[in-house]
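TL;DR need structure tokens for one chain.
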Amino acid sequence: MLNRRSFLIKSTLGSGLLLAGQFPFESLAAEKTRRLTILHTNDVHSRLEPFPADAGKNAFQGGVAARAALIEKIRREEEQVLVLDAGDIFQGTPYFNLYKGEPEIKAMSMMGYDATTMGNHDFDAGIEGFAHQLVHARFPVLVANYDFTETPLEGKTQPYALFKKGDIKVGIFGLGIQLKGLVPDDAYGKTKYLEPIAIANSVAERLKRKEKCDLVICLSHLGYEYNYRKVSDLLLAKETEHIDLIIGGHTHTFLDEPAMVKNKKGEDVVINQVGWAGLRLGRLDFVFDSKKSSKLSNAQSVIIGKQTRGL
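>> reply
TL;DR here they are.
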């Protein structure tokens, strides 16, 4: 009798809460998390094929076929996926010497890349050469701190782009490295380099406040870290606000796990970079709560090799 009486009391209380609209079903539904998977590369340097058998520890690793298979596998498993690149698409194999970037851009388009930024080696066929290859691109080239006025790239790049993944809004912008002294003057022509930290603060604030983005990503070809005071991803994170994630390139840094750096507001910025030559595919899974606040829930640096073929 006591057990039956206890059950009836609990059932009555539960019914009363439900009728009063106080039962926590709505709050439980509101706490449903949303998930976004970000896949990324950097400094692929025209490595369309895997490394050969005599390449030591890199033997049989890399190559666009294996990378494409892995990206497709993840797309089948995850509902919301972004595929991004942080520059230096060109230079490093005979493919670039012969075809000046056409197969690289076509391969990225076929793999469904969502966006890239420019690296210094993307000027190796001249600014005209890069502009010519964009006819094959089915993704935007994002760079906010290069002014291409009166160059062949004028109007062919954009500072940022917006992406809607489910009900999550993502803003992505790009930053390039200082070209003077790194790239021959005639290769970049009249391109004007703008100080990246000031530009990053301006663009990221626009994306977060005006565009109401839930996640702001910077595709950076500034480099991860230097032994002297030069603008790097680590410095960029510390000196800016509103950036949630920096996907880096240029220094060919293999990070086994992302770095976490406090920005000017004391909030975490995630930084990741996956080496060079398409040897690895970075994977970052973010979850968003009912208020669309993001949290990194998983990070992997996946080695691209024979084991990924056919997946």
